[in-house]
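FORM 7B - TANDEM STRUCTURE REPORT

SECTION 1: FIRST PROTEIN
SEQUENCE AND TOKENS:
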Amino acid sequence: MPTLTSPRVVILLFAVYVLLPLFTGFLFYQPDVDEIYDESRHELLDEAPVPADDEGHPEWMRPLEWKNRATGEVFTPESFIDHHRHEAFRMGLISFFYGLLACVYSAYLNQARRGTPFLRAFAVSLPVNAAIAFGVFWLVLHMSS
């Protein structure tokens, strides 16, 4: 019977660890319902041209202000700054706690394969996890603003 340290189990657990967020979406950015202008739900109030670029993308119009047809509420891209901060915090926190699973398993593998004390191996992987989670927080915070 394979153990948690056998190569096949390690590969399988790694694949599940990587694919689980992709298929469930729990690490994806969750936009607000009205954050993205939708012609079927919103009335466009103001827009600005975005010039064509060197990569062959044509000129297009960027929505600057839109109104929800059902509620009458008016939105601008700045209306969602608090939501972007909330999502950055949520995604950074979830990334950190999801990464703790990898830290625990990595420490277990190091203990089983190399004889490294569990807490020492865990302490080595923890700053890497924290750096990744902070990177996710920072990227989401700055990419959405």
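SECTION 2: SECOND PROTEIN
SEQUENCE AND TOKENS:
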Amino acid sequence: MTAEKRLIFVADPNAWRAAYESAERSDARSTLKKLLNFLRNPFSFFESDSSPHPDVIAFGSLLIRINAVVFFLMRSSAVLLHPEQVFPNIEVVLGVMIGLLAFVLLLSKYISGLLVFLFSRIYGFFVKFVTDRDNVLAAERVVVFSSSVLVLWFVPFGLVLSSVLFVALMFIGTTKQYGIDPVRALLAVLFPAIIIFVLLFVSGVVKIW
């Protein structure tokens, strides 16, 4: 394939749409039901779930939409309660926020696909490094379903709480989806978690007092 043909393929919206068009068939009601079942009992859910890629993408899209709406409600409430602190004016800020919300809601499926691909591959690499097992779909399920608790970031101490719960769910998912012992599952989960924490600490996003 020539460089020109590769460029045409990358720029072709149909080529990108084809990768995730099957995710549109996933019913929103069944996705929400799956979320409730997961939150009800993560142990049995991870043990029995065999969701295909389109369902995982749809689940991730739902989580992105929920987080986007929660973020919008919190920020817009702060803007309305303290309009004197808004620059340049409240109308512009609210307009930008509404535009960003609409953008995320419309493209949530594609954002989900990108994030699922990125983080599941990183996580899957460490699982394979520790256990020598390679299961792309299992990695996607563990990463996406465990991310359900990240919506708790808006409650008091939510960042710490959601991070701890996320790691705990990743550990449960790793043992159930890959069928490995707890020690190796813990190593597979902690390796990327420690690396991410170190990167955030070095970049200044996270500070230890």
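SECTION 3: OBSERVATIONS ON SECOND PROTEIN
Confidence is low (pLDDT under 50) at residues 3-10.
Residues 96 and 160 are 29 Å apart (CA to CA).

SECTION 4: SIGNATURE
Preparer initials: ____
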